[in-house]
Amino acid sequence: MSENTSNTTSKFRWRLWTNRAEADEVTPKHPHKPFPGWLYGVLFVVFDIIAVAALEVGVSTSSTRVQLSSPDVGFNFVSKMWLEGNFVFLLNVLLVGLLYLMLLMLCNRFWVASAVIVGMAISVASIEHFKIEIRYEAILPADLNFLGSNTGNMLTFIPAGAHVTILVALAVFAALLALILALRHLDGRNGRMLRSSNLGLNLGVRLLVMLLALLGFSLYCMQVSTTDSWANKFSHAMGDKPSMWDSVYDAQRNGPLVAFTRQLNPKVMDKPDDYSEETMKQVAARYKKAAEKLNADRSNDLNDSTVVYVLSESFSDPSRVPGLKVNKDSMPNIRKIKESTTSGLMLSSGYGGGTANLEYMGLTGLSMANFDSSLTSPYQQLVPTEHWTPTVNQLWGAPANSLGYHPYESSMYSRATNYKKFGFSHFYTLTGPDVIKYQDKIDESPYVSDKATYDSALEGIKDGTANKFIQIITMQNHMPYHEWYENNDFTAESTTGTPLEKDEQESIETYQKGASITDQATQEFLNELDKLDKPVTVVFYGDHLPGIYSSASEDENNSLALHLTDYFIWSNKASGTQGNKADDADYSSPNFFVAQAAEHMNAKVSPFLAFLTQMHSKIAAMEPPVVNKIQGWDRIPEGQSIYLDQSGNPMSEADFDDETKQLLADYKLIQYDITTGKNYLKDTDFMTLP
User: Fold this and answer.
1) CA–CA separation, 644 vs 369, rounded Å?
2) How confident is the model at residue 33 (pLDDT cuts 50, 70, 90)?
3) SS3 letters for 488-499?
């Protein structure tokens, strides 16, 4: 090396050292070393778990208000990973982690993103706590609409004593924020994740990671509620067990974020190929002619009578259960009533649960058989976001003429919200805001008796001169069944050669006694209605069999028998139609009840009811594929829906004649238009009585 080259190199090193020294004088070195990447990874998981824990605490209560649910709260949410092989906790960690990662890439500051994700989790948990305390309902997607349109009313949902919760939440957040600031102070990188001097590369990497996290989270939300999608399978594999009858229990059991996301984008129905405004006009015109033809031979108006729907919880005939012998009849009065009026067996889509789906079909005239298998609970997944919700009660005009009675928690199946949307002026429950008047219970039973429920409804029926639509949902015979009743002389035994297990026998015998009490209370209720000088018609049905026949349910050949309950349509003396027997009544499903009631009452119909009348003449009963699972919310995606003919025999779609195929196609068009289509029928007289 030459002398000149050596001198040049020495001068360059001197300038570099001098520049660094000058830079250090301007920007002093951080007193602490930068955190290594692995530590950031550990802390990311820690703050992720803290956020998940905060959300879970928000939905946890010391004891659930709803006896039907058994909350998985506290450490159980985590411990069931090794106790039950259920990893839904990790699923929640993963989902929150994707949101956390998006924040991290957005701001490129670990400590800022950590403070934001923890703060958001604590805020959401506090709001969740308030909503549960007031309404026993978790945060639902429909609440996002509330935030956009009624922000000014938010303060009315803050309960008394909320300041304590707010102060605790602030204290927890302050402590975590102090921890985050302390760690930031110790971190020589100040939480900066990507430190490349190449700004383009920095932004590109951050944008790519953020978009990947957003894509993963979005795809999960879009598909998790669709049966057999990758997200749905993944969620179930991780331990997600949808419990949509109780939104709080669902959030406790599966995590608030998982429970929330499954309701964001349910697949409702496939769009019919020929769906259009012109097609729907043709459908409306077709059944307007059918209505005119029917109405020419009918003399009464449907809403000139009071109509009472009684959904009798779990009511059915134990003597029809295969392989079971009972010592005496649990329903002699109702059996006699059925012999003298329109009556038969109802095909239920549930076994041991699923009440609200039967209720939905009865109130709307729509069938679960037409929905995609992904739509398991219209009350939670569909109704809150519908723009048009035509229901039977609306035929009675003003909301003042629609009353509902349910002696239990008003938030179950989101009924309080949905009944208001359906047009009920009052929905009387144990928890209000309209509190049911009579709340008597029988012996050791935890549920309000049917007699008390009937007595409450009778006051509404008798009040005023206006005709009304009354919806009654009883609770007396809800499971479980544990020797509640004194002097129970009902017995049951197996005829299969295998004795009943002790718990099964106890449940069946307790249920038999409860059914007999319902039988007597229902007869007394009808006797009271018979004394009135105003016309009243009652549609009574059991929603499903109780989920207690474990021996019978083991045999797949008993599936249909375990999905048939009892129903009847009865009118009082003042109606002038007492003793009428409508055609094709041996078998039915709830979606046909309003059309059958009109036929029983010799009442004129709307085009929609004319359609249902024709549909019922071709298919007696219809339900989606079902399984014998208590509170099972997984529909069977394979195979066809269940269709029964007038003799109760299963029918195959392949064997339908042209008229039946046309009716079924029209049904899907009608249901699609109402639920997820463009509501072309809304501006017609399709739902209007003459």
Assistant:
1) 12
2) confident
3) CCCCEEECCCCC
Instruction: Compute the average pLDDT of residues 87-97.
Output: 94
Per the structure block, which two tokens stand in for 40? 């950031």
Distance CA 330, CA 334 (A): 9
Q: What is the CA radius of gyration of the chain?
A: 31
- Token look-up 């699972």 returns 629
3-state secondary structure of 64: coil
Q: What is the 3-state secondary structure (H, E, C) of 520-561?
A: HHHHHHHHHHHCCCCCEEEEEEECCECCCCHHHHCCHHHCCH
Given a contact cutoff of 8 angstroms between Cβ atoms, the answer to whether 591 and 365 are in contact is yes
Residues 6+ apart with CB under 8 A from 598: 298, 302, 604, 605, 609, 613
Q: How confident is the model at residue 73 (pLDDT cuts 50, 70, 90)?
A: low
Using an 8 Å Cβ cutoff, are 264 and 141 in contact?
yes
Task: Give the pLDDT confidence of 176-233 residue by residue, as tens digits.
Answer: 999 999 999 888 887 787 776 777 788 888 899 999 999 999 999 988 888 778 998 9
How far apart are the C-alpha atoms of 4 and 186, rounded to whole Å?
Answer: 47
pLDDT-derived band at 447, boundaries 50, 70, 90: very high
Average pLDDT over residues 294-309: 96
DSSP 407: S
Tokens of 549: 């026949």
Higher confidence at residue 230 or residue 245? 230
3-class DSSP string for 317-350: CHHHCCCEEECCCCCHHHHHHHHCCEEEEEECCC
List b or e across 57-68, with b for residues whose CB sees 16 or more CB atoms inside 10 angstroms: bbbbeeebebeb
Distance CA 650, CA 412 (A): 33
Would you state the structure tokens that stand for residue 90, as one six-digit string?
Answer: 């990790």
Amino acid letter, residue 292: E
- CA–CA separation, 222 and 236 (whole Å): 15
- Residue linked to tokens 């509640």: 484
Q: Sorting pLDDT into bands at 50, 70 and 90, what band is 144? A: low
| DSSP assignment letter at 71 | -
d(CA 376, CA 673): 19
**Which tokens belong to 104?**
């991290």
The answer to whether residues 567 and 540 touch, using CB atoms and an 8 Å cutoff, is: yes
Cβ atoms within 10 Å of 30's Cβ, excluding its own: 13
